[in-house]
Amino acid sequence: EAQVTQNPRYLITVTGKKLTVTCSQNMNHEYMSWYRQDPGLGLRQIYYSMNVEVTDKGDVPEGYKVSRKEKRNFPLILESPSPNQTSLYFCASSLLGAEDTEAFFGQGTRLTVV
Amino acid sequence: AQTVTQSQPEMSVQEAETVTLSCTYDTSESDYYLFWYKQPPSRQMILVIRQEAYKQQNATENRFSVNFQKAAKSFSLKISDSQLGDAAMYFCAYQPSYTGANSKLTFGKGITLSVRP
Asked: A4-8: which pairs have CB atoms within 8 A and are 24 or more residues apart?
């Protein structure tokens, strides 16, 4: 089954404690992206990657890091989480340049930073 | 930069009735994609319908259809014969069509649709 898998689904952590949210896709997609969803703001892009070892900032990259060492994995790293990073996070993947491109989303990760 | 505007934060519809969700967008591009996503309480993002800007014909998917007005930069979603399972948050989204660049989805703020039995 084609899917994007995020883990964990829920996470409560304390300010300053490094954490990683994993994202993996099994569709051989080149493009992967992280979004955060906040009430009244919709989803906003954090970082994206167009292929292995190619990553770049989205609209709200401050406080986040990513890596793309393998095509299937695109982890989101919070080196020193702060309460303003409490949010719902989505990983998404898609083909690049395809006529019928469609973004596949993970199940979401609800992060609370206290 | 592209922007997507959903001005209505909430709407309500009677079961079996029809409801239209509004969306406007701003872009200087001539070719792009537009989407409506549904997010039920499970939080999963579900693609409802997609429209290519170069196609004049409005997209339809069963009870869901769009009214795409390219000149007006308007992209509304019509849900016919509303069902209780349609209750969710709906997001309108824009995506550029050119390759070699960020295929970012730009989302509106979303609208919460409730369905009255």
From this structure: A4/A91, A4/A92, A4/A93, A4/A104, A4/A105, A4/A106, A5/A106, A5/A107, A6/A89, A6/A90, A6/A91, A6/A106, A6/A107, A6/A108, A6/A109, A7/A109, A8/A109
